[in-house]
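Q: Okay, next protein. This is SufE family protein from Croceicoccus marinus. I've checked the sequence twice, so it should be correct. Can you predict the 3D structure?
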Amino acid sequence: MRSIDDIAEEYEFLEGDERYRLLIELGRELEPMPAALKTEATQVKGCSAAVWVYPTRAASEDGGNRLHFMADSNAAITKGIVALVIAAVQDRPAAEVADTDIEGALAPFDLRNQLSSNRTQGVPNMIALIRETASRIAAEG
């Protein structure tokens, strides 16, 4: 997965439909999420499209817990937005994810002005889910 900074750099040079195409491409680059993980428990509430986010833990070389997220959506552009959010936190230590300013990382994309409110309404809920998960895992040690 590309870093959020690399994606922002590319996005900055695109306009209109090209930005939509980049979002769709990002969504396609997400690793496939097994259908068995697409449950009510992993579904992000408040999204106009169906969105699922499933966190996994991966032990890191320093003994800490890194979070790896699997995610999916049934709408191409929404899936790209999901990929953007995940890119801001993917494979980082749980404590770092909990403290990450995800909204700040997404600011260069100006999603509220680039996309309809229907496409972005679930983003705060997705961010809240990621933060809650990361905080819980960081506290567990």
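A: Here is a summary of the prediction. DSSP finds eight helices and three strands in the chain. The mean pLDDT is 89.
Q: Noted. On to the next one.
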